[in-house]
């Protein structure tokens, strides 16, 4: 458990370093091509540092906003709030902020940068359709992500994927609408087009590689840790079974935030490109492993 936590912390630092290095290289190339010299590198350094800090401190807000999650107080839903508080006492964690996503699909996710700055978001479908022990299993799973520091890594990834997409679009538009004052610019635009095309093609692959940095074992580990917390793996197994049988997509989930959810938010029935790049282990396998623990 502690080795997993240390591993997640190291991966977060490594991802930030890779991200900053990539932006600096792109800034240097852009500055040379447009006669800005090292000014492009300076601008890139400022942008990469600012975005890294933004991802670290505000990535959770982006995730919650994109999911359409709204905060609730204890008086809004005492049932859910007490369940979260009781499980936190058992886990030895500070109580996270609780958000609700108005969506009939059964799903949930946790986000934040550490246990002191964590949030759990639960769909109204999960609250209404899951039995007490099933919802408890889902919440325990998300608390395990908080305790294991998975949330920090997963939240940073949202910003990285967004920046990669923005960069691809930026290079493409720079070529299409950039100034063309001399032959060098013309040649430079050709290079920018190639860079833009490469980024456009590689963006989903890069994003997927980043997601794969979070091993699928993370979900298995959270399942096991959550079951240890509730001491009733069958509860989470039944919740996953309901998600599988219902197969409803979570409406506002996007490809950048899909890896946060407890189950594939796009539904398992669609044979889409997004599902081909799913970051979640097979749900049947997760259910089988949970039942083998009972």
Summarize the structure in short.
The chain is α+β, with helices and mostly antiparallel strands and 294 residues long. The protein is built from eleven helices and four strands. Strands 1-2-4-3 form a four-stranded mixed β-sheet, sandwiched between helices.
Structure notes:
This protein is α+β, with helices and mostly antiparallel strands. It is 68% helix and 7% strand. The chain is built from 11 helices and 4 strands. The chain has helices at residues 2-33, 39-67, 78-91, 124-129, 132-147, 150-177, 183-213, 217-230, 233-246, 273-276, 283-293, and strands at 69-71, 97-101, 108-114, 117-123. The protein has a 4-stranded mixed sheet, with helices on both faces. Helix 1 runs parallel beside helix 6 and helix 8 packs parallel to helix 11. The protein is elongated, with a radius of gyration of 21 Å. Residues 270-276 have low confidence and may be disordered.
Q: Tell me the strand percentage band.
A: 5-15%
Order of helices and strands: HHEHEEEHHHHHHHH
Roughly what percent helix?
55-70%
Shape: elongated
Record the strand order, biggest sheet.
1-2-4-3
Question: How confident overall, as mean pLDDT?
Answer: 79
Largest sheet: 4 strands, mixed
Secondary structure blueprint with pairings:
Elements: H1 2-33, H2 39-67, E1 69-71, H3 78-91, E2 97-101, E3 108-114, E4 117-123, H4 124-129, H5 132-147, H6 150-177, H7 183-213, H8 217-230, H9 233-246, H10 273-276, H11 283-293
Parallel strand pairs: 2-4
Antiparallel strand pairs: 1-2, 3-4
Helix pairs in contact: 1-2, 1-6, 1-7, 2-6, 3-5, 5-8, 5-9, 6-7, 8-9, 8-11, 9-11
């Amino acid at each position: 458990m502690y080795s997993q936590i240390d591993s997640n912390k190291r991966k977060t630092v490594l991802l930030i370093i890779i991200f900053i290095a990539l932006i600096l290289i792109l800034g240097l190339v852009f500055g040379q091509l447009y006669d800005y010299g090292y000014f492009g590198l300076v601008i890139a350094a400022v942008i990469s540092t600012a975005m890294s800090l933004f991802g670290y401190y505000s990535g959770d807000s982006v995730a919650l906003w994109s999911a359409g999650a709204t905060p609730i107080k204890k008086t809004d839903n005492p049932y859910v709030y007490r369940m979260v508080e009781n499980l936190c006492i058992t886990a030895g964690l500070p109580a996270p902020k609780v958000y609700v996503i108005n969506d009939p699909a059964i799903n949930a996710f946790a986000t934040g940068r550490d246990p002191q700055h964590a949030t759990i978001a639960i769909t109204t479908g999960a609250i209404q359709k899951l039995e007490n022990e099933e919802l408890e299993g889902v919440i325990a799973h998300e608390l395990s992500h908080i305790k294991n520091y998975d949330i920090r890594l997963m939240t940073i990834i949202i910003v990285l994927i967004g920046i990669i997409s923005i960069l691809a679009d930026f290079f493409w538009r720079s070529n299409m609408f950039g100034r063309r004052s001399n032959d060098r610019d013309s040649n430079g635009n050709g290079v920018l087009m190639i860079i833009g095309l490469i980024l456009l093609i590689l963006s989903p692959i890069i994003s997927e590689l980043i997601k794969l940095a979070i091993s699928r074992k993370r979900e298995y580990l959270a399942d096991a840790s959550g079951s240890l917390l509730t001491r009733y793996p069958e509860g989470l197994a039944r919740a996953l079974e309901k998600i599988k049988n219902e197969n409803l997509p979570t409406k506002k989930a996007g490809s950048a935030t899909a890896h946060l959810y407890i189950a594939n938010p796009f539904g398992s029935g669609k044979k889409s490109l997004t599902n081909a790049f799913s970051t979640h282990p097979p749900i049947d396998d997760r259910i089988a492993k949970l039942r083998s623990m009972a």
